[in-house]
Amino acid sequence: MNINLLTQIVFYFFAGMTVLSAGVVVFSRNLIHCAFALLFTFFGVAGLYVFLGADFLAGAQVVIYVGGILVLLIFGVMLTQKLYELHLKAETFQFWPAFALTAAVFLTLITIMVRTSWHKTDLQPLDPTTARIGALFMREYVLPFEVASIFLLIALIGAAMIVRRRSE
Amino acid sequence: MIGLGHYLVVSAALFSLGIMAVMTRKNAVNVLMGIELILNSANINLVAFSRFSSGNLDGQLYAIFVIVIAAAEAAVALAIVLSMYRIVKSVDLDRADTLKG
């Protein structure tokens, strides 16, 4: 089979999976369905990263988004809904004005994208990126790296402080 | 051949869907899901431009910082949602109007 055609088929599979499951996240009436559709969106985005040659980022996407953020969101759903009453409905409001605005945003983005002549370079060969990313983090990006670690620590302490029961 | 435009279209679609979720949902957790969609679309753009436009890894590093901020945002926002649920017994964003005059 032609390798080019195969590449296109796999790309459209991941792109379709991403966009369709994002549509389920937005339009589904059931909160649990939303949360599980988000799983497929994150996996689809990870597949697109693999296509773009970002192997480390694809792994990080699966580990952090699927393993961390999605589990946290599902905890949020479970802890804030009365599961026994089957009350897991997600209400929507102002649907059509929001839909019109969203369509306008989408069309604007597509128009800008088509009209701009983007700067193009020759495609680099697809090498493993992890070692180069690690070297960049330790050299050029060492200050943002340290700031990000402090930031994560502050967010962790802050989140624990917010949910703590006041002892009074 | 798959080019830059394909990725930009996917990213624009994800961004629009995320905005739609943020604008139409009443449930706070659902709004958070919309924000995650928006951050993912920005990440696709960064990585796509890193591959097709710049040829170096800077875009991927920015994408990693975006993931870091998304993780911190999800943790703090869910803490706020749980705290709000404890106080007003609901995650309906219309009920979070204590500061309204």
How would you describe the overall organization of this protein?
The complex is a heterodimer of chains A (168) and B (101). Chain A has helices at residues 3-27, 31-51, 55-80, 95-115, 130-138, 142-163. In chain A, 74% of the residues lie in helices and 0% in strands. Chain A starts with a helix and ends in a 5-residue tail after the last helix. Chain A is globular. Chain A folds into two domains: 1-93, Four Helix Bundle (Hemerythrin (Met), subunit A); 128-168. Chain B has one domain (4-90): Helix Hairpins (Orthogonal Bundle). Chain B has helices spanning 4-24, 28-54, 58-88. In chain B, 53% of the residues are buried. The chains are: A mainly alpha (168), B mainly alpha (101).
Brief write-up:
The complex is a heterodimer of chains A (168) and B (101). Chain A is mainly alpha-helical and 168 residues long. Chain A has helices at 3-27, 31-51, 55-80, 95-115, 130-138, 142-163.
Key features?
A: 168 residues; mainly alpha; Four Helix Bundle (Hemerythrin (Met), subunit A); 2 domains; 6 helices; 74% helix; B: 101 residues; Helix Hairpins
Secondary structure: elements and pairs:
The complex is a heterodimer of chains A (168) and B (101).
Chain A: H1 3-27, H2 31-51, H3 55-80, H4 95-115, H5 130-138, H6 142-163
Helix pairs in contact in A: 1-2, 2-3
Chain B: H1 4-24, H2 28-54, H3 58-88
